[in-house]
């Protein structure tokens, strides 16, 4: 089990959090103008790297706030946590 550091509440067990997918995925400026194939790509296609990956998480059993986390997809090492709108930590960039 992971221990995740919430930027507001501190370190908690993974079971308190909800995974929200890849971080920094920009919402289309005009989604109604997107053809179906591009809309499907936005909804379903995400990176799946081997290594460090920026993810969104929500502290669902705590402050209920969203934040970003940098996690290694093989070892599950957490390299950094940062609030939405902030740049990733230098060590995790």
Which class do the helix and strand fractions yield? mainly beta
Overall average residue pLDDT: 93
Helix content: under 10%
| Approximate strand percentage | 35-45%
- How does the major sheet shape up? 4 strands, antiparallel
- Write the H/E string, N to C: EEEHEEE
Q: Helical region count?
A: 1
How would you summarize this macromolecular structure in one to three sentences?
The protein has 93 residues and is mainly beta. Helices cover 10% and strands 35% of the residues.
What does this molecule look like?
With 93 residues, the protein is mainly beta. It is built from one helix and six strands. The protein is globular. It starts with a strand and ends in a 10-residue tail after the last strand. The mean pLDDT is 93.
């Amino acid at each position: 089990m992971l221990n995740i550091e919430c930027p507001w509440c501190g370190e908690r067990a993974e079971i308190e959090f909800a995974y929200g997918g890849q971080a920094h995925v920009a919402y289309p400026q005009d989604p109604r103008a997107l053809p179906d194939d591009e809309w499907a790509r936005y909804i379903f296609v995400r990176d799946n790297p081997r290594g460090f990956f920026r993810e969104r998480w929500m502290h669902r059993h705590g402050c209920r706030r969203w934040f970003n986390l940098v996690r290694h997809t093989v070892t599950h090492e957490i390299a950094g946590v940062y609030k939405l709108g902030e740049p990733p930590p230098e060590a995790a960039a």
